[in-house]
Amino acid sequence: MTYRAPVRDLAFALKHVADFDRLASAFPEADADTVNAVLEAAGAFASEVLAPLNRGGDLVGAKLENGVVRSAPGFADAYRQFAQDGWTSLAAAPEHGGQGLPKTLEVAVLEMVQAANMAFGLCPMLSLGAIEALSHHGSDRQKALYLPKLVSGEWTGTMNLTEPQAGSDLAALTTMATPDGNGGYTLSGQKIFITWGDHDAADNILHLVLARTPDAPPGVKGISLFLAPKVMVADDGALGAHNDLRVGGLEHKLGIHGSPTCVMLYEGAKAELVGQLGAGLAHMFTMMNAARLQVGAQGTAIAERAYQQALEFSLERTQGRSAWTGVYPSRLYDHPDIRKTLVLMKAKIEAARGICLSTAVAADLAAHASDEAERTTAKLREELLTPIAKAWSTDVGVEVASLGVQVHGGMGFIEETGAAQHYRDARIAPIYEGANGIQAIDLIGRKLGLSEGQAIADLMDDMRDTQEALEAAGGALGGVALRFKSALDAVGSATAWLIERRARAMPDALSGATAYLKLLGNTVGGWMLAKGALAEPEGLRLALARVYGENVLAAVPGQVAAVTGGSGDLEIITPEMLGA
Length: 580
Prior knowledge:
Blueprint: H1 7-17, H2 32-59, E1 63-65, E2 68-70, H3 75-84, H4 103-116, H5 118-137, H6 140-152, E3 155-160, E4 176-179, E5 185-195, E6 204-212, E7 223-229, E8 231-233, E9 239-242, E10 245-250, E11 261-274, H7 280-316, H8 336-368, H9 372-408, H10 419-426, H11 436-445, H12 454-473, H13 476-504, H14 506-511, H15 513-535, H16 540-551, H17 556-564, H18 568-572
Parallel strand pairs: 3-6
Antiparallel strand pairs: 1-2, 4-5, 5-11, 6-7, 7-11, 8-9, 10-11
């Protein structure tokens, strides 16, 4: 099945949903012609170069041979072409060789890359995060020495957090960074789940590693960030000897087989401190927050890929008699239940895309708006939306990929059709870069309290403005307004309960965290579709908003009980009661 890059949908979402035009003064070079040219070129690369490698990457995968990781067939050549074409430099700063375009455009481009070949797309995604971390926290020397090579794509980057005994509990990590007496450090320890931790597609790999020094305090305050190159780099940029680090093994995974997920062993590897001692977690979060938004776009991407395949299959497969036409045998597409499934898949993709691109616009404004007040407001919006973009969009990815298998019926459960691969690939996205439960805890534990609740209040005000615009437009949009209003009222009720409960009964609040993220994500997704319908109040955009309203927004009031149920029943249930 071929992949068709959704260039028109992305362009529509940028302009009418994410308000990309707000970036005009900060990025005058990112005009409509430039944006369209970038999207078209990226779409062509994704469709013509990356998509054909996706199936082989799944079937063959990356291999570890004699201590060296060999990329999946065609991946290394495709990556070198990706870098040569300038895709890694799109949003990087010009002083490091970047093109200085908005991060929002980078997110849009990476969505197409991830949809075409999710396993491939993880490599540049991690490098972009490394660029972000070094740009914010690296020394002048580190920026001059490492950033140009990362920006050009000649070298790639990784993020080393997880250890076997620690999982998401970074306070428990034990990798040790010992001063070497010459201003550097030697790293000793094991990291797991390191995406693209080794490969043969680039000349060097820069590992950003969380570790603690011998005299560091316990817990997260003792964590620092270090850079350890695969191949040592001289001050003039020349490559030297191999560093004392190696791949201990490749993880055997449910999906993304083309992405080498490595166990990394640091055996006295030479490293240098990035930023301040003891501030490693904060520094790494610069990289992680960038990655979380990209993972949200990845959820959108895999949903788009699964949807396209399901739609194509529904148009080719004939079965049963159509309730509309009476034709026998009819296309699957001509059965109301199948078509409704496809429309809901499409609506949720557009909603997730809008959320991710809106988060990216807020991030660009937070960094580049000329007015300080606008930067502050945009930063609040970025921080509030990031856990929703990551968690809600990746849940949509899994849901839509699962529905894609369902549309295929039994053929979807057969690997040869490819539908199962999308489902297997999608399943990792709600787990990595902070599991979605952690995103929900972050949302209710920190983000609701941002600026004494100003972030959520501003979001609610903006959504109410759109709801009132729908009401004023009337007609079919008036029906969307009613569904949207009931959802907004439910969000207000659930938010007030959480804020009150958070202050005196945190277990109650935490037990409703995931339900709240879903409730808020469903509503923000409806907001995105409502803005699209206001821009084009007929045809597809209106239909998507209406169907989403009837099937998703209409259910939001009923989800409040899952938020406000409290933790009483959970507290009394023992493992033995559950059958342990």
